[in-house]
Amino acid sequence: MEFETLVDVESTDPLHLELSTDSGETWAPLPWTLDGTPVTGPYAASGLRQWQHAEAALPSGRVQVRWRQTTDASLSGRGVHLDDIRLTLGRGQAQVGTEDAPWRLVADDGWERVTR
Fold first, then answer.
1. Is residue 26 part of a domain?
2. Which residues are within 8 A (CB) of 72 and not within 5 positions of it... i.e. 6 or more apart?
3. pLDDT value of position 4
4. What local confidence, expressed as pLDDT, does residue 3 receive?
5. Which of 19, 28, 30, 76 keeps 20 to 30 A from 65, CA to CA?
6. Which Gene3D superfamilies does the entry link to (predicted)?
């Protein structure tokens, strides 16, 4: 899986990338890379304010992936933004939001779609 992200949050408002193999009953951290640098837990960056390329290897079989952000009462930065989500399938690559992987496959609970 690949995606572009802009993360501009304080350390108390991190982004979590998580995986479930049991239809969402339990979730575990999904290791990923950000511009080639490994990320193995919650991620926060403040002041960077640029889009970065992210990748994560998904196990075979039926899985669910979620991006989750935890926040506190104070506000800082532009938040977490995701774009250009691509899944590599056995037959090639599918981009979320296209005919191959329509938006109906994405639950946007707590997220808002905006134009980049």
1. yes
2. 12, 13
3. 93
4. 92
5. 76
6. Galactose-binding domain-like
